[in-house]
Amino acid sequence: MEKIAVKHKEKEKILDDIVENKKGLKNLLEVANSSLDNKEGFINIKEKDSGYFKKRYFKILNGNLVYYKIKKGTVDVVDFTKMRTISNLLLTNVKKNDKEYDYPFCFEVISAANKKSFVFQANNEREASEWFFVIRNAISSSISGYNNQPDTGGRKSSVDSHSQGSIYESHDFKNKMNNELMIDKIINSNKCADCSADKPVW
Fold first, then answer.
1. What is the DSSP string of 33-60?
2. What is the pTM of this model?
3. What is the CATH number of the domain that holds 137?
4. 11 phi and psi, to 5 degrees?
């Protein structure tokens, strides 16, 4: 009985060590991922209409999360002539919680600009974690860059410098102005973009 008890304690210690090592490895991965600033590659996105996941080639480009379709009749040949923007990262949030989804290795991108959410599925936990951190870090960089713009330049002066001509008729210009107004409203509202709580501190 004493020998069995000793072996049982040894087994418990080994299992405890494994758990601690896993925690340590997870912390190291999170620290490494927190410095990721770029990533591109294949990942699955859930189609709104069909409810099925489809493989697309994603990357972060000029402050936007974009994807390219795969050429018809191929498995992984990307058609770089057809690009679609998922969301402007200034108006985006990302969350990772597999428990809310029916499939593993999922995370969600929520776009305030077009009031849509997109569910993504990676091939494994590591890839899902990397994508999550890359998007989160890119969102932080976009917000920092926007907040650090001087008041006299950028957004405000661009309106003054184009006070004449047909630029106000431009669809791109109107979209840009609408986005900037929405950004200002979100930043100055002092409310949580997810749950609308007043004065969030998280």
1. HTT----EEEEEEE-TTT--EEEEEEEE
2. 0.58
3. 2.30.29.30
4. -65, -40
